[in-house]
């Protein structure tokens, strides 16, 4: 009887020490990347924003602690729930979609025209359990704001670095 208690106590002590040392990994975080949007009402800019989103997800998809929601899964859910208008998803719809695809966090991006003739990309990471913004950052995007948005590799790289 005492030996059984000693064995159980030893196993419990070992389990607690492994957990405390961080050797036990928590379940992967599931993150959805909403299609980035812009405020210039240009179809070509909207397509470029979607391409920017796809390029960003392709580069951040190799982070081992994160399970990314596939873009096809996101788009299928948006069609099924009829939550897109002219290819765009507003904030409330993005939050609903994130919950629908069982994501823990949602990454949103919005391209904005600046008064100085340029653009910025505002990134947000939202905790879908509480709909709280966990982090946000604004990046400057090079280019002529009088023309539609263009995807540039250095802008995607800066976006990926900000998300990591």
**Helical amount:** 40-55%
Largest sheet: 6 strands, mixed
Number of helices: 5
Please count the beta strands (DSSP E, at least 2 residues each).
Answer: 6
Q: Strand portion, in percent?
A: 15-25%
Computed CA radius of gyration, to the nearest angstrom: 21 Å
Cα-to-Cα separation, first versus last residue: 52 Å
Structural class: alpha/beta
Shape: globular
- The overall pLDDT, averaged over residues, is 76
| SSE pattern | HEEHEHHEEEH
Task: Please mark out the parts with pLDDT under 50 across 5 or more consecutive residues, or reply none.
Answer: 1-26
What does this protein structure show overall?
With 164 residues, this protein is α/β, with parallel strands linked by helices. The protein is built from 5 helices and 6 strands; from the N terminus they run αββαβααβββα. It has helices at 2-21, 43-60, 71-81, 91-100, 153-163; strands spanning 29-33, 37-38, 66-68, 105-113, 119-127, 132-141. A hairpin with a 4-residue loop joins β5 (119-127) and β6. The protein starts with a helix and ends with a helix.
